[in-house]
Amino acid sequence: MTLRKRISAIRATRSFWRYGSNLAPTLEYLIRSHKYRDCDSAQIVRRLNSDGVAIARIEDFLDYGSIVDFYSEVERLRVAKRVEIEALKANVESDLTVGQKTFNLELLGSEPIFDAECVFARMGLNEKFLTIANGYLKMKARLRYYNIWYTAASMSVLRESQLWHFDREDKLIVKAFVYLDDVEAGTGPFTYAPGTHPKGIHASLKPEFMMEGNVRRTSDAHMEAAYPRADWRVCTGKKGTIIFADTRGYHKGGEARTGDRLMFTCMYTSPASQSKDLIRFPADFDPALLSAEQCKALRIPRK
Ligand SMILES: O=C(O)CCC(=O)C(=O)O
Questions:
Q1: What is the pTM of this model?
Q2: What CATH number does the domain located at 8-298 have?
Q3: Which among 101, 168, 177 is the best mutation to test ligand 1's pocket, defined by most ligand atoms within 8 Å of the CB?
Q4: Per-residue pLDDT tens for 187-241?
Q5: Which of 12, 146, 226, 238 is surrounded by the most beta carbons within 10 Å?
Q6: What gap in Å lies between CA 291 and CA 145, rounded to an integer?
Q7: Per DSSP, what are the bridge partners of residue 210?
């Protein structure tokens, strides 16, 4: 068998496996939940389908009391983690190790222990977030992680997610980013090339790249040569801005130069994706604290 035929056979097997494994969540979605209960979610899914990126506000997802709780928990965490944040800021110009995002600190740790009462877990399992992820993936999506990222400002050479790239965890991915402070041009806005996601009109865009480990990274200059800078979606925004994006499309973020950035983030993929689950469940975890939809998003059986 020629190399090309062998690669095609591997791809066909992988596709077959993926669609086969995602059959049940797809049927469940098609049969039960393809109707949107609110027009905001439908509009966001439409934007994701066409552009690969959509912008919303926290007020569209949480009531006033929940927003107050959410932000006060953010402030509590910012204070509780001040020693680690200071250490991050002290080392950010000197530790340039590639592969560890040394400009970024995950305030919930690399694998948060799930707590159904925690506002951050509840945000990842927000009913409208799940509706959007399901609607875009056209199946019952799986929540893979949620966290709070603190990105320290630096003048270091750009690397990792600060350069253009696309994620490879799945064929389609939904990530949400919630800004927890105002984000300006100098504080590392998430930036996207609309239409470069697999459903988009620029899906076949192939800008020049360099290899960073085994990941393709593209500089601004090379991106601009392939895709007009005027069309880049630089997502600056006030505290409470929410960005949904299919990160299979070209994106970058966290180029914080003039100030630090704090944001909530979470990721949804198809259940069949081999992406790691970065959520740990305590031994005494009680699924009855969650709705059936939330249990599905975590792939845990409801008692
Ligand atoms: O920090 C950012 O804004 C970029 C994040 C990113 O590249 C990703 O989550 O895939």
A1: 0.94
A2: 2.60.120.620
A3: 177
A4: 999 999 999 999 999 999 999 999 999 999 999 999 999 999 999 999 999 999 9
A5: 146
A6: 18
A7: 217
